[in-house]
Amino acid sequence: MLVYASIGCSHNYSFMFIIFILHYFLGVSAQSFIHSFTLTHSAFNVYIVTPEGKQIEFTKVDDNSRRWLNEFRAKPFSVPGKLEDVESIRYSALLIPSGLGCSYDLANHKDLGKILNEFIEDRKPICAIGHGTSALFSAMSDGGYSWSFNEYSITAPSLFEVCNLPNFADLPLIQEDFIKENGANYSHSQNNCNYVVIDRHVITGQNDNSTLSAVQNLILLCNARQGRQKIAS
After folding, report:
1. What pTM value is reported for the model?
2. How far apart are CA 216 and CA 36, in angstroms?
3. Domain holding 74: CATH number?
């Protein structure tokens, strides 16, 4: 999983941008990452982290995205920091792009769970897209007996979308089932359509095609929160 850092930016917000990495064929969606990064990098200081600082693996790479990623990898900020070293107090928002690997290396990540719980307590903006919503499952409360997002409305890939994956039988969890079984309000739209749910400070997108809408709403939410803080001060 990964977070990206933009050095020398004059903006007031430091933006946590989280991705994951585990299996080479289950990395982060290139489309979701590129859209997420392009939008946030222009508006925020961005810091990329992954578990143990591992390099990012990308999936669904075509000729256009390959050229973009080659340029991205040549930049110093493409080197991820360690998720385990993140201090949530230093960051104002958190973004998890879509990627199948989240179900494997983030769904039970204790350090990420701690960060998410601290974001919930402070009502800081959180955005998870597509299979990236699996990362939210790491946040537990009541001694691990209750999911911290159990009173939120959330979307994620539908069961039908997941069933069409070639590795469906090997998936460690089904997002729709987990969300419903742990008390949250799950909803979805048609397969592979743009669908975003906003509940208080949490934004979720159903799939890769929801990336642009989800991140745009995240930026609006961050700007609104910053505006309220300026008025209050």
Report:
1. 0.89
2. 9
3. 3.40.50.880
